[in-house]
Amino acid sequence: MVFNSGLRSRRRLPPGPWRIPVIGNLHHLGELPHRSLHCLAEKHGPLMHLQLGQIPTIVVSSPEVASEIMKTHDLEFCNRPSTAVFKKFSYNGSDISLSKYGEHWRQMRRLGTMEFFSTKRVQSFRNVREDEVHVLIQSMRRSCTQSLVNLSEMFLCMTNNITCREVFGKRFSDDGECNRSKHHDLVMEVIELMGGSSIGNFFPSLGWLSVITGFQAKLERNFKKMDEFFEREIEEHCLSLMNDQGHGDQQKEDLLDVLLKSQKDSANLGFSLTRDHIKAILMDIFLGGTDTSAAILEWTMTELMKFPSTMKKAQDEVRGIIGNKGKVEENDLQQLQYLKLVICETLRLHCIVPFLLPRENSKDCKVFGYDISKNTRVLVNAWAISRDPKLWENPEVFMPERFEGSTINYKGQHFEFIPFGAGRRMCPGMQLGIVIVEIALANILYHFNWELPFGMCYEDIDTTEIFGVVLHKKSPVCLKAKPIHQILQHSSAIPFNDYINRISASNASH
Ligand code: HEM
After folding, report:
1. Where are the alpha helices (DSSP H) in 90-214?
2. Fewer CB within 10 A of the end CB, N or C, for the chain?
3. Residues 301-317: pLDDT tens digits?
């Protein structure tokens, strides 16, 4: 079924409109023919028109057009589309990430920027992150004696625990291990639903079919559980604030404390913050903060295992700088310049939010000479842009050195590399997410040597990507961990640096 393109033909969009048979592909965004989109982009240029069901959509695959959309015409293109799933989980557009552009979004984004994404706030959670990384390292130590370490699973648990502590001031898996809690599973189900696609996303007039397929019921069930979880925590926090057991100390405040205080202080805030607004922001933080950092860690370890000399260089750096201090702390991160390049390269090669979040234009406009009608959906294919051979030398190769001395960074100024998006709707949680990745990665490289499971060689490492809102690895990263300090204990006569050299040499000989 093909509908009117919605694009006026004064200058036709090459090569379109492409009509993707979405009916056969409704289950999951991951099944959208992403790789073929990449090929089409290569063949047909930087701007492609697709007709996804009833929704006119353009896919942007070049930095020039991305810059037109997210810089020159940012104001016209900074709306988010409204789908059934987005509406539900954003409490009808009450949040930051999925709300329509306008006064409400501006107020919420300002509140976020001032109160929870600021450098000061990010630093106030330093202890939380360092504690949870310590828990991660201890859990890895315990599990590595018996079996392979499932890093994918542990990274997710760690990021979920960090988010819970930042938001609610407590951990939900209280056994002191890096384990799953029931909230963890719930968050993962919701993220999957967000990445999935119901028929209503592409054929709004057929939205009722979601009831028959069971999608609607699943949506309602998960939303209800998440909402009940938030309600319980809000009630508990309100009670403790009423009893004046709120911490008072800004260093110890959790994000829900901050939101509840802002709600009380609505005169200063300039608008009234409702309970739905608060729950919508909590949803943003859970969905934005959990899966993304875990996926970056998962891909970084995969690439480091594929490139042992890069692994050695990163380990040498961290061990050389930290010496026998026993752990990496956040104060040390500034010195770990190579580690930062490694993370940049992971973000380039495995763009974690491959299509960014979808945008929509609020009025008719002209981009690169093409007329684009109001309400056209825009997907920026940041994944394809950061692997484009016209922009990157050997784009499929993991090579952190390419960023050495380069002015290109991920802060939204360089459109060939936009893993956090750009413009008004750029990710505000970048700092919060990156510091988790840095501190966790630095510590796992410092504390362990990593080996592939017995009988496996580097060519066997699976790098198949699963496309959802977040780009995951098809198979989990399971590795053999050799704790450095155990080796040290067994031969205490040899100085630490000799050990480091010896261990690094054994790593390099792989
Ligand atoms: C570290 C990994 C992360 C990555 C790769 C990432 C990526 C993104 C991307 C690509 C967007 C869409 C930008 C656009 O449309 O131009 C986005 C938006 C957003 N992210 Fe992140 N993000 C990360 C971490 C976080 C964290 C930790 C939080 C919150 C705790 C967060 C909260 C948000 C919010 C609220 C938005 C919506 C902004 C708006 O629409 O105004 N993100 N993120």
Report:
1. 103-115, 119-124, 126-144, 151-168, 182-195, 199-202, 209-213
2. N
3. 999 999 999 999 999 99
d(C-alpha 100, C-alpha 104), whole Å? 8
For a pocket test of ligand 1, which of 129, 427, 430, 434 has the largest count of ligand atoms closer than 8 A to its C-beta?
427
Picking from 399, 498, 507, the residue whose alpha carbon sits closest to that of residue 448 is 507
What is residue 303's DSSP assignment? Answer: H
Q: CA of 80: how far to CAs of 38, 75, 128, 178, 397, in Å?
A: 23, 12, 33, 35, 34
Backbone angles phi, psi at 429, to 5 degrees: -95, 15
CA of 317: how far to CAs of 126, 340, 377, in Å?
22, 11, 45
Neighbouring CB atoms inside 10 A of 390's CB total 9
Q: Is 457 flagged in the annotation as binding?
A: no
The C-alpha R_g of the chain, in whole angstroms, comes to 23
Atom of ligand 1 nearest to the CA of 433: 1
d(CA 70, CA 425): 9
pLDDT in tens, 37-54: 454 445 545 677 776 666
Read off the DSSP letter of residue 30.
Answer: G
Residue with CA at minimum distance from ligand 1 atom 9: 420
CA of 425 to the centre of ligand 1 (A): 9
Of 364, 226, 369, the C-alpha closest to 287 is 226
pLDDT digits (tens, 9 = 90+) for 101-160: 999 999 999 999 999 899 999 999 999 999 999 999 999 998 888 789 999 999 999 999
Strand partners, 473: 465
Q: Which amino acid is at 417?
A: F
- Environment class of residue 427 by beta-carbon count within 10 Å: exposed (0-12), middle (13-18) or buried (19+)? buried
| Tokens found for residue 377 | 């959906």
Helices and strands counted in the chain (H then E): 21, 11
Concatenated DSSP letters of 459-485: GG----EE-SSS-EESS--EEEEEEHH
DSSP designation for 100: P
Ligand 1: which residues within 6 Å by Cβ? 96-97, 109, 284-285, 288-289, 292-293, 352-353, 356-357, 419-422, 425-429, 432-434
Q: Is 97 left (phi over 0), alpha (psi -120 to 50) or beta?
A: alpha
Three-state DSSP at 51 gives strand
d(CA 451, CA 457): 10
230 Cβ contact partners less than 8 Å away, ≥ 6 residues apart: 278, 279, 282, 283
Distance from the CA of 470 to the center of ligand 1, in angstroms? 11
Stated as kind and residue range, the H or E segment containing 232 is helix 215-242
Copy the structure tokens of residue 233: 């925590």
